[in-house]
Amino acid sequence: EPDVTIVSGLRDTVVSEGDNVTFRCQVSHENARDVEWKLQDVALQNNEMNEISVEKGKIHTLTLRKVTEQDIGTVTFRVGPHTSTA
């Protein structure tokens, strides 16, 4: 399997309480496995508050819905041994 790397990393974002925020990370190969999103070192799952998806096979997105003050912190995207944070 080819080593999947991060082509375009996460960007720091400022958002108002109650708004949605989307983070994007582009990887080098489609259908990347061993992908993980974290907020403050807590693994995120796809649910009503967090939307995790893949666009065009290589662009991994995380949308945090209706953020609160408790959501302040570091967002991490990991694919294999490579990580990007914002």
Architecture blueprint of SSEs:
Elements: E1 6-8, E2 21-27, E3 35-39, E4 42-43, E5 50-55, E6 59-64, E7 75-79, E8 82-85
Antiparallel strand pairs: 1-2, 2-6, 3-4, 3-7, 5-6, 7-8
Number of domains: 1
CATH topology: Immunoglobulin-like
The proportion of residues in beta strands is 35-45%
Helix fraction, binned, reads under 10%
Q: Determine the N-to-C terminus distance.
A: 28 Å
Low-confidence stretches: none
Task: Identify the CATH architecture.
Answer: Sandwich
Number of strands: 8
User: What's the tally of helices?
Assistant: 0
- Give the topology string: H per helix, E per strand: EEEEEEEE
Helix/strand/pairing class, anyone?
A: mainly beta
Mean pLDDT: 95
Cα gyration radius (Å): 13 Å
Instruction: Write down the overall geometry.
Output: elongated
Characterize the main sheet. 4 strands, antiparallel
Keywords, please?
mainly beta, Immunoglobulin-like, 4-stranded antiparallel beta sheet
Question: What do you see in this structure?
Answer:
The protein has 86 residues and is mainly β. The protein has a single domain, classed as Sandwich (Immunoglobulin-like). Strands 1-2-6-5 form a 4-stranded antiparallel sheet, with no helix packed on it. It is 0% helix and 44% strand. The radius of gyration is 13 Å and the shape is elongated. The protein has no helices and 8 strands.
